[in-house]
Hints:
Mean pLDDT of chain A: 91
Distance between the termini of chain A: 28 Å
Number of helices of chain A: 8
Number of strands of chain A: 11
Shape of chain A: elongated
Oligomer: homodimer
Radius of gyration of chain A: 19 Å
Order of helices and strands of chain A: EHEHEHEHEHEEEHEHHEE
Structural class of chain A: alpha/beta
Amino acid sequence: MTSVLVIDDDADLLRALRINLSARDYRVATAGDGGAGLSAVAREHPDAVIVDLGLPDMEGADVIRGVRGWSSVPIIVLSARDQEAQKVEALDAGADDYVTKPFGMDELLARLRAATRRIPASTGAPVIETADFRLDLQAKLVRLTSGAPVRLTPTEWQLLETLARNRGRLVSRLQLLQQVWGPEYHTETHYLRVYIAQLRRKLEPDPSRPRYLLTEPGMGYRFSD
Amino acid sequence: MTSVLVIDDDADLLRALRINLSARDYRVATAGDGGAGLSAVAREHPDAVIVDLGLPDMEGADVIRGVRGWSSVPIIVLSARDQEAQKVEALDAGADDYVTKPFGMDELLARLRAATRRIPASTGAPVIETADFRLDLQAKLVRLTSGAPVRLTPTEWQLLETLARNRGRLVSRLQLLQQVWGPEYHTETHYLRVYIAQLRRKLEPDPSRPRYLLTEPGMGYRFSD
DNA sequence: GCCGACCGCAAGGATTCCGTAAAGATCCCG
DNA sequence: CGGGATCTTTACGGAATCCTTGCGGTCGGC
């Protein structure tokens, strides 16, 4: 199920969006201002974000940049202002689309579909199979080849998922921290050491000599199969 | 350089777009109707497509579906019609954005930037291949042609990366030092000697007779393939 | 042939980084 | 409100990396 985060300070509009999106089987989360929005993105990892400009606490473009600093989730901007400079600023800050109020709900939903449609093409197969375990990203399920299911905590899963989605590529410590713990984390590298060790204990045939979750000293980690 | 294909039957608009896009360093191709547009997409492989609805020979949505059948190139729709049903149909047919005429050129350009920005993350993979090894800058991965992965330290990577990004060109010692160690370094040329030697030991088939990492005495180094 | 400038190479100490275990804090659910 | 699971924090031994130094070799000018 696709999840959407709506950031808006207009309670009526928020309610209208929640009703319409829920009716289309979206999972909806909401936030009332920019600060709450940014932490909600970090916490919920939504598949798309709809953000109103003119929030009480932050400039719209700053909200967008705050998200773009560490996430590439699609962002659709809502705004009452239809001056061109406004649109250009929001789009160049990293927004994917810009809809002017008043807007038609059908159009917004179509633009939301367009924005979310682009993602799965780039990510690829959601099932990863190795000699020792089988990883289903969509079902959030891990099984050893022996058949035994592996139980992962939410944090362990997010970490593993981030690495698996970048299979073969090196993922920097900063990127891992921000993807899993949120944008304000960038020095807590010991979190990574602890959780990587836990994942290795659960997945690697010989945890002290990792074969899949590789350390690149001074840089980050790599999922290699 | 980013290339754009414009499909439109309005000669004036075509000319205006060509001028504005060329001025921003886009490579521009044009087509006057849907059929010509489809074959132009196949022939030119543009990085983005701008298509007008209301072409003389085809329905707009059919043009979009014709492209989407085999390509995921970003499509921006231009249209004089701003009925909601029209927008929904185009977007659901596979368009990435929908701009209503009359439109501001700055807005269109911003939307074009937004549409093309999403691509390079998935495709633009800078991979350098030689007879002896294969270098993937994005994944930070080096493999010898034998298949054996090569393990590089962070400093070794930065050095190799700066040389590789200037492939064929001479890179001065000063530039290397400042790029890898920081702007305040400019006399520590012995760092370079040490790390170049380590890279050669890991990459060159005969480290004492370098073939790829060449010394230019008194000047700097050069990556040559 | 001598000399200086420059480069390659190896080795060792200092420093940073990583793996691991374990204890305290927090959250969640019944 | 209690208990279990999860998350955070700490500490330390060991490993990897970085910086430094010294020596020997090569090349070109004189």
